[in-house]
Protein backbone atom coordinates (compact mmCIF):
# COMPACT_ATOMS: atom_id res chain seq x y z
CA UNK A 1 0.00 0.00 0.00
CA UNK A 2 1.39 3.40 -1.00
CA UNK A 3 2.49 5.66 1.85
CA UNK A 4 0.30 8.75 2.29
CA UNK A 5 2.33 11.94 2.57
CA UNK A 6 1.13 14.20 5.37
CA UNK A 7 0.41 17.71 4.13
CA UNK A 8 2.76 20.35 5.52
CA UNK A 9 1.64 23.90 4.73
CA UNK A 10 3.77 27.02 4.83
CA UNK A 11 3.21 30.73 4.36
CA UNK A 12 6.03 32.82 2.92
CA UNK A 13 6.02 36.63 3.03
CA UNK A 14 8.41 38.11 0.49
CA UNK A 15 10.33 41.36 1.08
CA UNK A 16 7.91 42.94 3.56
CA UNK A 17 10.42 45.67 4.40
CA UNK A 18 9.90 49.44 4.46
CA UNK A 19 12.43 49.91 1.63
CA UNK A 20 10.15 47.89 -0.65
CA UNK A 21 6.75 48.75 0.81
CA UNK A 22 7.32 52.44 0.16
CA UNK A 23 7.47 51.81 -3.59
CA UNK A 24 4.18 49.89 -3.85
CA UNK A 25 0.96 51.38 -5.18
CA UNK A 26 -1.23 50.24 -2.29
CA UNK A 27 0.96 49.57 0.69
CA UNK A 28 -1.80 49.88 3.32
CA UNK A 29 -4.05 47.35 1.61
CA UNK A 30 -1.17 44.88 1.26
CA UNK A 31 -0.22 45.13 4.94
CA UNK A 32 -3.88 44.69 5.96
CA UNK A 33 -4.21 41.59 3.77
CA UNK A 34 -0.95 40.16 5.14
CA UNK A 35 -2.20 40.54 8.70
CA UNK A 36 -5.30 38.52 7.83
CA UNK A 37 -3.43 35.67 6.16
CA UNK A 38 -0.93 35.67 9.01
CA UNK A 39 -3.83 35.07 11.41
CA UNK A 40 -4.99 32.22 9.20
CA UNK A 41 -1.52 30.68 9.18
CA UNK A 42 -0.95 31.02 12.90
CA UNK A 43 -4.29 29.61 14.03
CA UNK A 44 -3.84 26.62 11.70
CA UNK A 45 -0.22 25.94 12.70
CA UNK A 46 1.29 26.59 9.30
CA UNK A 47 5.00 27.15 9.00
CA UNK A 48 5.48 30.94 8.74
CA UNK A 49 8.60 32.16 6.97
CA UNK A 50 9.73 35.68 6.12
CA UNK A 51 11.99 35.98 3.09
CA UNK A 52 13.86 39.25 2.78
CA UNK A 53 16.50 40.93 0.68
CA UNK A 54 19.37 42.30 2.83
CA UNK A 55 22.86 43.33 1.71
CA UNK A 56 26.12 43.67 3.61
CA UNK A 57 27.51 47.19 4.21
CA UNK A 58 28.77 48.88 1.04
CA UNK A 59 26.87 46.20 -0.94
CA UNK A 60 29.75 43.84 -0.40
CA UNK A 61 29.65 40.98 -2.90
CA UNK A 62 27.25 42.73 -5.31
CA UNK A 63 28.76 43.18 -8.75
CA UNK A 64 28.33 46.64 -10.29
CA UNK A 65 27.34 44.76 -13.44
CA UNK A 66 24.39 43.00 -11.76
CA UNK A 67 21.30 43.70 -13.89
CA UNK A 68 19.03 44.44 -10.94
CA UNK A 69 21.22 45.44 -7.98
CA UNK A 70 24.37 46.72 -9.72
CA UNK A 71 23.05 50.30 -9.78
CA UNK A 72 22.89 50.30 -5.97
CA UNK A 73 26.48 49.14 -5.75
CA UNK A 74 27.65 51.85 -8.18
CA UNK A 75 25.78 54.64 -6.45
CA UNK A 76 26.96 53.53 -3.02
CA UNK A 77 30.59 53.54 -4.17
CA UNK A 78 30.19 57.23 -4.96
CA UNK A 79 28.00 58.45 -2.06
CA UNK A 80 28.64 55.96 0.74
CA UNK A 81 26.40 54.00 3.11
CA UNK A 82 24.87 57.04 4.81
CA UNK A 83 23.31 58.17 1.54
CA UNK A 84 22.72 54.85 -0.24
CA UNK A 85 21.56 51.99 1.99
CA UNK A 86 18.47 50.45 0.44
CA UNK A 87 18.04 46.93 1.82
CA UNK A 88 21.31 47.27 3.74
CA UNK A 89 21.70 45.57 7.09
CA UNK A 90 21.89 47.94 10.02
CA UNK A 91 19.29 50.33 8.59
CA UNK A 92 15.59 50.39 9.54
CA UNK A 93 14.39 50.15 5.95
CA UNK A 94 15.86 46.67 5.54
CA UNK A 95 14.13 45.07 8.53
CA UNK A 96 10.68 43.48 8.42
CA UNK A 97 7.96 46.10 8.84
CA UNK A 98 6.99 46.42 12.51
CA UNK A 99 3.32 45.99 11.53
CA UNK A 100 4.13 42.45 10.38
CA UNK A 101 6.91 41.56 12.81
CA UNK A 102 7.61 37.81 13.04
CA UNK A 103 7.05 35.92 16.25
CA UNK A 104 9.86 34.13 18.02
CA UNK A 105 8.91 30.76 16.57
CA UNK A 106 8.74 32.06 12.99
CA UNK A 107 11.69 31.86 10.65
CA UNK A 108 13.38 34.86 9.02
CA UNK A 109 15.55 33.97 6.00
CA UNK A 110 17.67 36.69 4.45
CA UNK A 111 19.19 36.57 0.99
CA UNK A 112 21.69 38.85 -0.73
CA UNK A 113 20.91 37.68 -4.25
CA UNK A 114 17.82 37.58 -6.46
CA UNK A 115 17.10 33.84 -6.26
CA UNK A 116 16.03 32.68 -2.74
CA UNK A 117 17.98 29.40 -2.70
CA UNK A 118 18.08 29.41 1.10
CA UNK A 119 14.29 29.39 1.19
CA UNK A 120 14.14 26.39 -1.12
CA UNK A 121 16.61 24.46 1.02
CA UNK A 122 14.76 25.24 4.27
CA UNK A 123 11.33 24.19 2.93
CA UNK A 124 12.87 20.99 1.59
CA UNK A 125 14.31 20.16 4.99
CA UNK A 126 10.95 20.86 6.63
CA UNK A 127 9.19 18.58 4.09
CA UNK A 128 6.77 21.33 3.09
CA UNK A 129 4.20 20.18 0.51
CA UNK A 130 2.16 23.34 -0.04
CA UNK A 131 3.19 26.99 0.08
CA UNK A 132 1.08 30.15 0.09
CA UNK A 133 3.22 32.86 -1.48
CA UNK A 134 2.58 36.54 -0.66
CA UNK A 135 4.40 39.87 -0.63
CA UNK A 136 6.08 42.17 -3.10
CA UNK A 137 6.91 42.62 -5.78
CA UNK A 138 4.78 40.37 -7.94
CA UNK A 139 7.27 40.71 -10.79
CA UNK A 140 10.25 40.25 -8.48
CA UNK A 141 10.52 38.22 -5.28
CA UNK A 142 7.07 36.67 -5.57
CA UNK A 143 7.66 35.40 -9.09
CA UNK A 144 11.13 34.04 -8.44
CA UNK A 145 10.01 32.38 -5.18
CA UNK A 146 7.27 30.55 -7.08
CA UNK A 147 9.79 29.41 -9.69
CA UNK A 148 12.26 28.07 -7.14
CA UNK A 149 9.69 26.26 -5.00
CA UNK A 150 7.98 24.76 -8.04
CA UNK A 151 11.27 23.05 -8.89
CA UNK A 152 11.09 21.36 -5.48
CA UNK A 153 7.74 19.76 -6.36
CA UNK A 154 5.73 21.84 -3.91
CA UNK A 155 2.17 23.02 -4.54
CA UNK A 156 2.31 26.78 -5.03
CA UNK A 157 -0.66 29.06 -4.22
CA UNK A 158 -0.41 32.82 -4.72
CA UNK A 159 -2.98 34.89 -2.78
CA UNK A 160 -4.12 37.70 -5.02
CA UNK A 161 -4.86 40.39 -2.42
CA UNK A 162 -1.60 39.60 -0.58
CA UNK A 163 0.60 40.51 -3.55
CA UNK A 164 1.52 43.99 -4.82
CA UNK A 165 3.81 45.68 -7.32
CA UNK A 166 4.95 49.21 -8.09
CA UNK A 167 3.07 49.16 -11.41
CA UNK A 168 -0.68 48.26 -11.35
CA UNK A 169 -0.69 47.14 -14.98
CA UNK A 170 2.32 44.90 -14.44
CA UNK A 171 0.72 43.51 -11.27
CA UNK A 172 -2.42 42.49 -13.16
CA UNK A 173 -0.40 41.02 -16.03
CA UNK A 174 1.79 38.93 -13.71
CA UNK A 175 -1.19 37.68 -11.70
CA UNK A 176 -3.17 36.76 -14.78
CA UNK A 177 -0.51 35.43 -17.14
CA UNK A 178 2.79 34.67 -15.37
CA UNK A 179 2.18 33.28 -11.89
CA UNK A 180 -0.41 30.70 -13.05
CA UNK A 181 2.46 29.03 -14.92
CA UNK A 182 4.04 28.02 -11.59
CA UNK A 183 0.99 27.44 -9.42
CA UNK A 184 -2.54 28.61 -8.75
CA UNK A 185 -3.71 32.13 -7.99
CA UNK A 186 -6.49 32.28 -5.43
CA UNK A 187 -8.31 34.94 -3.45
CA UNK A 188 -8.05 35.84 0.20
CA UNK A 189 -11.77 35.06 0.50
CA UNK A 190 -11.14 31.50 -0.70
CA UNK A 191 -8.32 31.03 1.81
CA UNK A 192 -10.59 32.26 4.59
CA UNK A 193 -13.32 29.82 3.53
CA UNK A 194 -10.79 26.97 3.38
CA UNK A 195 -9.70 27.52 7.00
CA UNK A 196 -13.18 27.71 8.52
CA UNK A 197 -14.80 30.94 7.36
CA UNK A 198 -14.70 34.57 8.38
CA UNK A 199 -16.53 33.93 11.65
CA UNK A 200 -13.44 32.14 13.00
CA UNK A 201 -11.30 35.28 12.72
CA UNK A 202 -10.91 38.13 15.19
CA UNK A 203 -13.23 41.11 14.95
CA UNK A 204 -10.38 43.31 13.69
CA UNK A 205 -9.55 40.86 10.90
CA UNK A 206 -13.20 40.50 9.92
CA UNK A 207 -13.68 44.27 9.72
CA UNK A 208 -10.42 44.70 7.86
CA UNK A 209 -11.30 42.01 5.32
CA UNK A 210 -14.75 43.47 4.72
CA UNK A 211 -13.21 46.88 4.12
CA UNK A 212 -10.69 45.39 1.69
CA UNK A 213 -13.44 43.65 -0.25
CA UNK A 214 -15.36 46.95 -0.35
CA UNK A 215 -12.47 48.65 -2.10
CA UNK A 216 -10.88 50.13 1.02
CA UNK A 217 -7.41 49.67 2.45
CA UNK A 218 -8.40 47.39 5.30
CA UNK A 219 -8.27 50.12 7.92
CA UNK A 220 -12.04 50.33 8.48
CA UNK A 221 -12.85 51.49 11.99
CA UNK A 222 -9.35 52.87 12.45
CA UNK A 223 -9.79 56.13 10.57
CA UNK A 224 -12.01 59.13 11.29
CA UNK A 225 -13.90 58.99 8.02
CA UNK A 226 -17.00 56.82 8.24
CA UNK A 227 -18.85 55.15 5.39
CA UNK A 228 -22.32 53.83 4.79
CA UNK A 229 -22.41 50.35 3.30
CA UNK A 230 -24.80 48.73 0.84
CA UNK A 231 -24.96 45.10 -0.32
CA UNK A 232 -26.65 43.79 -3.45
CA UNK A 233 -27.65 40.19 -2.73
CA UNK A 234 -29.41 39.75 -6.06
CA UNK A 235 -32.91 39.43 -4.67
CA UNK A 236 -35.70 40.33 -7.06
CA UNK A 237 -37.09 43.83 -6.71
CA UNK A 238 -35.67 47.33 -6.87
CA UNK A 239 -32.64 46.69 -4.64
CA UNK A 240 -30.03 47.07 -7.36
CA UNK A 241 -31.51 50.38 -8.50
CA UNK A 242 -31.75 51.71 -4.96
CA UNK A 243 -28.11 50.89 -4.37
CA UNK A 244 -27.06 52.60 -7.61
CA UNK A 245 -28.91 55.73 -6.50
CA UNK A 246 -27.36 55.63 -3.03
CA UNK A 247 -23.87 55.36 -4.52
CA UNK A 248 -24.60 58.44 -6.65
CA UNK A 249 -25.25 60.58 -3.58
CA UNK A 250 -22.58 63.23 -3.48
CA UNK A 251 -22.71 64.16 0.19
CA UNK A 252 -22.95 60.68 1.74
CA UNK A 253 -19.92 58.36 1.42
CA UNK A 254 -21.66 55.13 0.36
CA UNK A 255 -19.58 52.07 -0.48
CA UNK A 256 -20.41 48.58 -1.68
CA UNK A 257 -20.14 45.81 0.89
CA UNK A 258 -19.37 42.41 -0.69
CA UNK A 259 -21.62 39.38 -0.38
CA UNK A 260 -21.26 35.69 0.41
CA UNK A 261 -23.45 32.62 0.13
CA UNK A 262 -26.06 32.62 2.89
CA UNK A 263 -27.70 29.29 2.13
CA UNK A 264 -28.75 27.16 -0.81
CA UNK A 265 -32.26 26.02 -1.56
CA UNK A 266 -32.82 22.94 -3.71
CA UNK A 267 -35.64 24.62 -5.63
CA UNK A 268 -34.69 28.30 -5.68
CA UNK A 269 -30.91 28.01 -5.76
CA UNK A 270 -28.36 30.12 -3.94
CA UNK A 271 -29.22 32.97 -1.58
CA UNK A 272 -26.66 35.60 -0.67
CA UNK A 273 -26.09 37.90 2.30
CA UNK A 274 -23.52 40.58 3.17
CA UNK A 275 -20.03 39.22 3.73
CA UNK A 276 -19.60 38.12 7.31
CA UNK A 277 -23.40 38.04 7.69
CA UNK A 278 -23.09 41.63 8.74
CA UNK A 279 -26.05 43.98 9.03
CA UNK A 280 -25.31 46.86 6.66
CA UNK A 281 -26.94 50.25 6.15
CA UNK A 282 -28.91 49.08 3.12
CA UNK A 283 -29.40 45.65 1.63
CA UNK A 284 -32.07 43.87 -0.41
CA UNK A 285 -32.21 41.05 2.19
CA UNK A 286 -34.30 42.45 5.10
CA UNK A 287 -32.54 40.35 7.75
CA UNK A 288 -29.24 42.09 7.00
CA UNK A 289 -30.37 45.67 6.36
CA UNK A 290 -30.86 48.50 8.84
CA UNK A 291 -33.73 49.63 6.60
CA UNK A 292 -35.97 47.01 4.99
CA UNK A 293 -37.10 47.57 1.40
CA UNK A 294 -39.87 44.99 1.81
CA UNK A 295 -42.99 45.37 3.94
CA UNK A 296 -43.85 42.69 6.47
CA UNK A 297 -47.14 41.18 5.33
CA UNK A 298 -46.76 42.31 1.74
CA UNK A 299 -48.27 39.05 0.49
CA UNK A 300 -51.72 40.25 1.63
CA UNK A 301 -51.48 42.98 -0.99
CA UNK A 302 -49.66 40.97 -3.62
CA UNK A 303 -51.85 37.87 -3.76
CA UNK A 304 -55.09 38.49 -5.63
CA UNK A 305 -57.35 36.45 -3.36
CA UNK A 306 -55.99 37.79 -0.07
CA UNK A 307 -56.42 41.43 -1.06
CA UNK A 308 -60.17 40.88 -1.43
CA UNK A 309 -60.59 41.12 2.35
CA UNK A 310 -59.89 44.84 2.48
CA UNK A 311 -60.12 45.97 -1.17
CA UNK A 312 -63.23 44.06 -2.20
CA UNK A 313 -65.53 47.06 -2.45
CA UNK A 314 -63.33 48.60 -5.15
CA UNK A 315 -62.92 45.39 -7.15
CA UNK A 316 -65.16 43.77 -9.75
CA UNK A 317 -67.10 40.82 -8.38
CA UNK A 318 -64.44 38.18 -7.89
CA UNK A 319 -64.71 34.39 -7.83
CA UNK A 320 -62.04 32.09 -6.39
CA UNK A 321 -61.10 28.75 -7.89
CA UNK A 322 -58.89 26.14 -6.21
CA UNK A 323 -58.20 22.53 -7.20
CA UNK A 324 -60.81 22.90 -9.91
CA UNK A 325 -63.57 23.91 -7.46
CA UNK A 326 -65.23 27.22 -6.69
CA UNK A 327 -64.65 28.35 -3.11
CA UNK A 328 -65.78 31.22 -0.91
CA UNK A 329 -69.09 32.95 -0.28
CA UNK A 330 -69.56 34.02 -3.89
CA UNK A 331 -69.45 30.46 -5.20
CA UNK A 332 -69.02 30.24 -8.96
CA UNK A 333 -69.84 32.72 -11.71
CA UNK A 334 -73.32 32.85 -13.29
CA UNK A 335 -74.40 30.55 -16.08
CA UNK A 336 -74.03 31.60 -19.71
CA UNK A 337 -77.75 32.28 -20.00
CA UNK A 338 -77.94 34.64 -17.02
CA UNK A 339 -78.27 38.36 -17.67
CA UNK A 340 -74.95 40.08 -18.38
CA UNK A 341 -72.89 36.88 -18.28
CA UNK A 342 -71.70 37.27 -21.85
CA UNK A 343 -71.75 41.04 -22.21
CA UNK A 344 -68.00 41.33 -21.52
CA UNK A 345 -65.05 38.91 -21.42
CA UNK A 346 -63.86 36.99 -18.35
CA UNK A 347 -60.31 37.11 -16.97
CA UNK A 348 -58.67 34.16 -15.21
CA UNK A 349 -55.55 34.99 -13.14
CA UNK A 350 -53.31 32.93 -10.88
CA UNK A 351 -53.51 34.44 -7.41
CA UNK A 352 -49.78 34.55 -6.69
CA UNK A 353 -48.42 35.53 -10.10
CA UNK A 354 -47.75 38.96 -11.54
CA UNK A 355 -46.31 38.17 -14.94
CA UNK A 356 -48.17 40.69 -17.06
CA UNK A 357 -50.35 39.41 -19.86
CA UNK A 358 -48.60 36.03 -19.92
CA UNK A 359 -50.36 35.01 -16.69
CA UNK A 360 -53.90 35.97 -17.80
CA UNK A 361 -56.39 33.75 -19.62
CA UNK A 362 -59.31 35.44 -21.41
CA UNK A 363 -62.57 33.69 -22.27
CA UNK A 364 -65.88 34.96 -23.62
CA UNK A 365 -68.33 33.15 -21.32
CA UNK A 366 -68.44 31.50 -17.89
CA UNK A 367 -68.80 27.98 -19.23
CA UNK A 368 -65.30 28.20 -20.78
CA UNK A 369 -63.55 29.02 -17.52
CA UNK A 370 -62.95 25.53 -16.12
CA UNK A 371 -62.02 24.19 -19.55
CA UNK A 372 -59.35 26.89 -19.96
CA UNK A 373 -57.55 26.41 -16.67
CA UNK A 374 -54.16 24.84 -17.44
CA UNK A 375 -53.13 24.00 -13.86
CA UNK A 376 -56.20 22.70 -12.00
CA UNK A 377 -54.33 22.44 -8.69
CA UNK A 378 -53.46 26.14 -8.82
CA UNK A 379 -55.51 28.83 -7.08
CA UNK A 380 -57.15 31.40 -9.39
CA UNK A 381 -59.31 34.51 -9.24
CA UNK A 382 -61.89 35.08 -11.96
CA UNK A 383 -63.39 38.47 -12.83
CA UNK A 384 -65.61 39.77 -15.60
CA UNK A 385 -64.46 42.90 -17.39
CA UNK A 386 -66.05 46.05 -15.97
CA UNK A 387 -68.98 47.55 -17.86
CA UNK A 388 -68.46 50.76 -19.80
CA UNK A 389 -64.70 51.33 -19.21
CA UNK A 390 -63.47 54.88 -19.71
CA UNK A 391 -61.68 54.80 -23.07
CA UNK A 392 -59.40 57.27 -24.78
CA UNK A 393 -61.06 59.56 -27.30
CA UNK A 394 -60.01 57.17 -30.08
CA UNK A 395 -61.63 54.21 -28.30
CA UNK A 396 -58.69 52.43 -26.69
CA UNK A 397 -58.79 50.78 -23.29
CA UNK A 398 -56.54 52.15 -20.56
CA UNK A 399 -55.77 51.79 -16.88
CA UNK A 400 -53.65 53.74 -14.40
CA UNK A 401 -50.40 52.37 -13.07
CA UNK A 402 -50.72 54.15 -9.72
CA UNK A 403 -47.48 54.18 -7.69
CA UNK A 404 -47.42 54.04 -3.92
CA UNK A 405 -44.76 54.57 -1.23
CA UNK A 406 -45.56 53.14 2.18
CA UNK A 407 -43.22 53.64 5.14
CA UNK A 408 -43.33 52.25 8.66
CA UNK A 409 -40.98 53.75 11.23
CA UNK A 410 -38.70 51.93 13.66
CA UNK A 411 -41.40 51.97 16.35
CA UNK A 412 -43.44 49.53 14.24
CA UNK A 413 -46.68 51.52 14.65
CA UNK A 414 -46.20 54.79 12.75
CA UNK A 415 -47.11 54.54 9.07
CA UNK A 416 -46.91 57.12 6.28
CA UNK A 417 -48.46 56.70 2.85
CA UNK A 418 -47.58 58.63 -0.32
CA UNK A 419 -49.11 58.38 -3.77
CA UNK A 420 -47.19 59.47 -6.84
CA UNK A 421 -48.51 62.29 -8.97
CA UNK A 422 -46.37 60.85 -11.75
CA UNK A 423 -48.67 57.86 -12.25
CA UNK A 424 -48.66 56.47 -15.78
CA UNK A 425 -51.29 55.21 -18.18
CA UNK A 426 -51.14 51.81 -19.80
CA UNK A 427 -52.95 52.02 -23.13
CA UNK A 428 -54.03 49.20 -25.43
CA UNK A 429 -52.60 49.42 -28.96
CA UNK A 430 -55.98 48.46 -30.43
CA UNK A 431 -59.51 49.94 -30.13
CA UNK A 432 -61.46 48.15 -27.41
CA UNK A 433 -64.34 45.80 -28.09
CA UNK A 434 -65.90 43.35 -25.59
CA UNK A 435 -66.05 40.80 -28.40
CA UNK A 436 -62.33 40.94 -29.23
CA UNK A 437 -60.48 38.54 -26.90
CA UNK A 438 -56.98 39.29 -28.18
CA UNK A 439 -54.35 40.29 -25.65
CA UNK A 440 -53.52 43.46 -27.58
CA UNK A 441 -57.09 44.64 -27.12
CA UNK A 442 -57.89 43.44 -23.61
CA UNK A 443 -54.62 43.60 -21.69
CA UNK A 444 -52.93 46.93 -21.09
CA UNK A 445 -49.44 46.24 -19.77
CA UNK A 446 -47.19 48.62 -21.72
CA UNK A 447 -46.75 51.93 -19.95
CA UNK A 448 -47.34 55.15 -21.86
CA UNK A 449 -44.39 57.55 -21.35
CA UNK A 450 -46.47 60.76 -21.52
CA UNK A 451 -47.98 61.87 -18.17
CA UNK A 452 -51.74 61.27 -17.93
CA UNK A 453 -52.39 64.99 -17.59
CA UNK A 454 -50.68 65.57 -20.94
CA UNK A 455 -51.98 62.56 -22.87
CA UNK A 456 -54.19 63.71 -25.73
CA UNK A 457 -57.57 62.06 -25.65
CA UNK A 458 -57.44 61.34 -21.91
CA UNK A 459 -55.88 64.32 -20.10
CA UNK A 460 -59.29 65.82 -19.29
CA UNK A 461 -59.95 62.97 -16.83
CA UNK A 462 -56.66 63.13 -14.95
CA UNK A 463 -57.25 65.46 -12.01
CA UNK A 464 -60.55 63.93 -10.89
CA UNK A 465 -59.29 60.37 -11.44
CA UNK A 466 -56.08 60.99 -9.50
CA UNK A 467 -57.96 62.21 -6.42
CA UNK A 468 -60.31 59.22 -6.50
CA UNK A 469 -57.44 56.77 -6.86
CA UNK A 470 -55.56 58.48 -4.04
CA UNK A 471 -58.54 58.19 -1.69
CA UNK A 472 -59.26 54.61 -2.73
CA UNK A 473 -55.66 53.53 -2.27
CA UNK A 474 -55.53 55.19 1.14
CA UNK A 475 -58.67 53.41 2.29
CA UNK A 476 -57.36 50.00 1.20
CA UNK A 477 -53.89 50.45 2.69
CA UNK A 478 -55.24 51.80 5.97
CA UNK A 479 -57.55 48.80 6.30
CA UNK A 480 -54.64 46.43 5.63
CA UNK A 481 -52.74 48.13 8.45
CA UNK A 482 -55.66 48.32 10.89
CA UNK A 483 -56.49 44.63 10.42
CA UNK A 484 -52.89 43.66 11.16
CA UNK A 485 -52.15 42.24 7.72
CA UNK A 486 -49.32 44.74 7.25
CA UNK A 487 -47.09 44.63 10.30
CA UNK A 488 -44.28 46.74 11.70
CA UNK A 489 -40.71 45.60 12.15
CA UNK A 490 -38.15 46.60 14.79
CA UNK A 491 -36.55 48.73 12.06
CA UNK A 492 -37.72 51.19 9.43
CA UNK A 493 -39.34 49.50 6.44
CA UNK A 494 -40.67 50.83 3.18
CA UNK A 495 -41.76 49.70 -0.24
CA UNK A 496 -42.53 51.30 -3.58
CA UNK A 497 -45.27 49.38 -5.36
CA UNK A 498 -48.20 50.01 -7.68
CA UNK A 499 -51.93 49.47 -7.83
CA UNK A 500 -53.90 49.09 -11.06
CA UNK A 501 -56.97 51.34 -11.23
CA UNK A 502 -59.45 51.55 -14.11
CA UNK A 503 -62.13 54.28 -14.27
CA UNK A 504 -65.47 53.77 -15.99
CA UNK A 505 -67.72 56.18 -17.88
CA UNK A 506 -69.83 56.81 -14.76
CA UNK A 507 -66.97 58.19 -12.65
CA UNK A 508 -66.32 55.00 -10.68
CA UNK A 509 -62.85 53.58 -10.20
CA UNK A 510 -62.13 49.86 -10.13
CA UNK A 511 -59.10 48.20 -8.58
CA UNK A 512 -57.67 45.01 -10.07
CA UNK A 513 -54.45 44.23 -8.23
CA UNK A 514 -51.36 45.42 -6.44
CA UNK A 515 -47.93 44.84 -7.96
CA UNK A 516 -45.40 44.70 -5.14
CA UNK A 517 -42.44 44.64 -7.54
CA UNK A 518 -43.70 46.61 -10.53
CA UNK A 519 -41.55 46.73 -13.65
CA UNK A 520 -39.57 49.93 -13.28
CA UNK A 521 -36.01 50.71 -14.36
CA UNK A 522 -35.80 47.33 -16.07
CA UNK A 523 -32.24 46.02 -16.24
CA UNK A 524 -32.61 45.10 -19.91
CA UNK A 525 -32.94 48.83 -20.69
CA UNK A 526 -29.36 49.33 -19.47
CA UNK A 527 -28.29 47.89 -22.81
CA UNK A 528 -28.33 50.77 -25.33
CA UNK A 529 -29.48 48.38 -28.06
CA UNK A 530 -32.70 47.81 -26.09
CA UNK A 531 -33.41 51.52 -25.67
CA UNK A 532 -35.60 53.84 -27.69
CA UNK A 533 -37.27 57.19 -27.08
CA UNK A 534 -40.17 55.63 -25.15
CA UNK A 535 -37.92 53.51 -22.95
CA UNK A 536 -35.56 56.41 -22.27
CA UNK A 537 -38.51 58.48 -21.06
CA UNK A 538 -39.70 55.65 -18.82
CA UNK A 539 -36.22 55.13 -17.41
CA UNK A 540 -35.95 58.81 -16.50
CA UNK A 541 -39.41 58.69 -14.92
CA UNK A 542 -38.61 55.59 -12.88
CA UNK A 543 -35.20 56.75 -11.65
CA UNK A 544 -36.63 60.08 -10.50
CA UNK A 545 -39.48 58.29 -8.73
CA UNK A 546 -37.19 55.87 -6.89
CA UNK A 547 -34.69 58.61 -6.05
CA UNK A 548 -37.39 60.83 -4.58
CA UNK A 549 -38.68 57.86 -2.58
CA UNK A 550 -35.21 57.21 -1.16
CA UNK A 551 -34.85 60.88 -0.30
CA UNK A 552 -37.97 60.57 1.86
CA UNK A 553 -37.07 57.23 3.44
CA UNK A 554 -33.36 57.89 3.93
CA UNK A 555 -33.01 61.69 3.90
CA UNK A 556 -29.64 63.31 3.35
CA UNK A 557 -28.22 66.80 2.99
CA UNK A 558 -28.31 66.80 -0.80
CA UNK A 559 -31.83 65.36 -1.08
CA UNK A 560 -34.23 66.49 -3.78
CA UNK A 561 -34.33 66.12 -7.54
CA UNK A 562 -33.44 68.90 -9.99
CA UNK A 563 -34.02 71.60 -7.42
CA UNK A 564 -37.39 70.19 -6.31
CA UNK A 565 -38.37 69.48 -2.73
CA UNK A 566 -37.35 66.19 -1.16
CA UNK A 567 -40.80 64.71 -1.83
CA UNK A 568 -40.75 65.59 -5.54
CA UNK A 569 -43.97 64.21 -7.03
CA UNK A 570 -44.74 62.07 -3.99
CA UNK A 571 -48.01 63.29 -2.45
CA UNK A 572 -48.71 62.70 1.24
CA UNK A 573 -51.89 60.62 1.31
CA UNK A 574 -52.21 59.46 4.89
CA UNK A 575 -50.59 58.89 8.27
CA UNK A 576 -51.68 56.09 10.56
CA UNK A 577 -50.79 54.76 13.99
CA UNK A 578 -51.53 51.28 15.25
CA UNK A 579 -51.15 49.62 18.60
CA UNK A 580 -48.31 47.22 19.21
Provide key terms for this protein.
580 residues; alpha/beta; 7-stranded mixed β-sheet; 6-stranded parallel β-sheet; 15 helices; 26% helix; elongated
Description:
By secondary structure, the chain is α/β, with parallel strands linked by helices. The protein has 15 helices and 23 strands. The strands form five sheets. Strands 12, 18, 19, 20, 21, 22 and 23 form a seven-stranded mixed β-sheet that branches. A hairpin with a 5-residue loop joins strand 18 (396-408) and strand 19. The longest helix has 21 residues, at 462-482. The radius of gyration is 33 Å and the shape is elongated.
Share of helical residues: 25-40%
Low-confidence stretches: none
Mean pLDDT: 91
Number of strands: 23
Please state roughly what percent of the residues sit in beta strands, choosing from under 5%, 5-15%, 15-25%, 25-35%, 35-45% or over 45%: 15-25%
- Overall shape: it is elongated
Look at the helices and sheets and give the structural class.
alpha/beta
Between the first and last Cα atoms, what is the distance in angstroms? 70 Å
- Count up the helices: 15
Largest sheet: 7 strands, mixed
| Radius of gyration using CA atoms only | 33 Å
Task: Briefly summarize what is shown.
With 580 residues, this protein is of the alpha/beta class. Helices cover 26% and strands 24% of the residues. The longest helix has 21 residues, at 462-482.
